[in-house]
Design a protein that fits this description.
alpha/beta, 434 Repressor (Amino-terminal Domain), homodimer, Rossmann fold, 12 helices, 43% helix, elongated, DNA-binding, six-stranded mixed β-sheet
Chain lengths: 345, 345
DNA sequence: TAGGGCTATGTTACCGGTCACATCGGAGAA
DNA sequence: TTCTCCGATGTGACCGGTAACATAGCCCTA
């Protein structure tokens, strides 16, 4: 009763299985009358074609695999959504693997499982991934189109998509400088994330451009990107540089955490201390004050990744790996105040 | 060169393909020496077994399908992450379909595509889904284990997982009442979402329990769950009931939007007006004031959904659809103030 | 020492589609 | 009228695994 096959339908419609195949694939050269008969049989038997059998036979799975650090993180969720939408437009399905914190070799396991599934493309969004010797990822790249998202791994043959973190960091810091800030602290994400390092580089570039001497005590790294870390980092920062007038936090959550600390110390934002974030998560526009931040277009990142794979699959020739960097624009809101010329807090 | 099959490996190792199958599946009764030989051939040919062929032959895909409204929404992203983690634990892979706003029949298309893929279970998290006559979803339920998340559709044979929205709404409102609030407004989500209606019911229950008369002008529905809507709803609410002392917003974003409006009107939170939200999104704990809210355990919802499918698949007998309601606890923070006895703002 | 039973391995069919090619019948051309 | 060609349909192999059964040694026991 359950699981009619193409041959069951054929028998019922009194045609060959091949004719059924023609009908369900919309091929020409089938009489209207025959088609009708077949379709009726399909309905009566509640026949649903098997993508599995089709894949085996046609050697196409129409499936893309995506491995991410954690889908529940807004950042990756957006990328997944973007990739999914774009993939779907092109007739692909998406299978996802979300790597739980803690398990070491999970990326590799996932990768292998996806290869077994014969995905036709791979999106790897695992920022901290380091390449081992003889890494299975290299194998994967050799087999199927692969896009590395937000990774600093340099893998020949793979496409790379990333945010221009350095420029983003530069703009954020540069904006603070333009508002006459001179003593600018920064709260960074974990420095084993390439994005954190890049943003820090941007911060330093901007200070250098402005002729402001680098000061190590103004750089406060965190172990994660969360609120609590921002809170504590701000405390350390205030301890080591009580007179700073601005903070560039590498994520909105870090920024919000920092703001909480500032408030707790009786400092007003932005009147006493200005704050710039990074991400532009949905709440950033409604917190008090609305957060000035650098917007990460993660959805576009996901879309682009899927599009690259689609294009590559379509052209089917092996191109060299391309490199795409999406601009992360500064969104100016209300958490930065202009400092009166020369005044130091 | 690319795509060695089990027979290629067999030839190379000078055994039958069946022996290769035994080795890669870790079967007993293979000599160490033979196994070694096979494994070497596997390595040399870079053989990766085809899950597609395996699925066709074994009639198992080890795949779960999940259809959601929008993965980039924190709410669903959490559920996806939870489901994914649990599925993985049980050896399942997850394919996801995220329904873009606007396209009407997408759920059905996705459903059909997933049936074609022969998913072994289906998680449908599409709150506003309405059942059409002769709905394909009913077919799906008849074929494979299905879990409906946050839906009020009553489908025999399907399992249901949901948050106890009514109780959540009741607790939130009841808490305000306990703090001596009497004039309590509510900002609801779109009322075609079952969760919005349930929370509203909870709100009404609580008022009734306290002997407070219902007042239609205190209920302000929104077209979505976002900040901007919260802002505007609060304005309408203040216009129609300027003396209210508390607001129960059905999402944290609505609550934050409302707080923004209150601030703009010079009203302090919680001193002048208390606010309770719903969701407990990550920022809720760090905004100013920290938001008192009802926590939705979405991750657990996803986990439970996946677990139910796993159990059902394992027992393989058709149980009646079960119904699971997860408690959404009130998280008390700082956005609610106690009203002095009898005082009315 | 023959037969039973176990282990290691091979053989063949099958899962449910697609593909390449064969076949058949009728319309149009010579 | 006969030949040709083409549209409609059928046949059998194949995709890459798994399952069930067959077979060949080997050890042990009676």
């Amino acid at each position: 009763m359950k699981g009619a096959t193409i041959r069951d339908v054929a028998r019922r419609a009194r045609v060959s299985h091949q004719t059924v195949s023609r009908v369900i694939n919309g091929h020409e050269s089938v009489t209207d009358e025959t088609r009708e008969r077949v379709l009726r049989a399909v309905r009566e038997l509640e026949y649903v074609p098997s993508a599995v059998a089709r894949s085996l036979s046609s050697q196409r799975t129409h499936t893309l695999g995506m491995v991410t650090t954690d889908v529940s993180d807004h950042f990756f969720a957006e990328a997944v959504a973007g990739a999914e939408a774009e993939a779907r437009k092109r007739g692909y399905f998406m299978i996802i693997g979300s790597i739980e914190e803690g398990s070491e070799d999970d990326e590799r396991t996932y990768l292998h499982l996806m290869l077994e599934r014969r995905v036709e493309g791979l999106i790897v969004a695992v920022p901290r991934l380091r390449l081992a010797e003889d890494d299975p990822l290299a194998d994967a790249v050799a087999r199927i189109p692969t896009v590395l998202v937000a990774s600093d791994i340099d893998l020949a043959g793979a496409d790379h998509v990333d945010i221009d973190n350095r420029r983003g960091g530069h703009e954020a810091t540069g904006y603070l400088v333009a508002q006459n800030h001179r003593l600018i602290g920064t709260i960074t994400g974990p420095l084993d994330w390439p994005s954190a390092r890049a943003r820090l580089d941007g911060y330093r570039d901007a200070l250098k451009d402005a002729g402001i001497a680098a000061d190590r005590t103004l750089v406060e790294p965190c172990v994660d990107w969360g609120l609590e870390s921002g809170r504590r980092a701000a405390e350390r920062l205030l301890a080591s540089a009580p007179k700073l007038s601005a903070i560039f936090a590498q994520s909105d959550l870090l920024a919000l955490g920092a703001i909480a600390t500032l408030r707790a110390r009786g400092l007003r934002v932005p009147d006493d201390v200005s704050v710039v974030g990074f991400d532009d998560i949905p709440v950033s526009s409604v917190v008090d004050p609305p957060l000035t931040t650098v917007r990460q277009p993660m959805r576009e990142v996901g879309e682009l990744a899927a599009r690259l794979i689609g294009d590559r699959a379509a052209s089917s020739r092996k191109t060299k790996g391309s490199r795409h960097t999406l601009r992360a624009p500064l969104i100016i809101r209300g958490s930065v105040a202009r400092l009166d010329g020369g005044r130091i807090r």
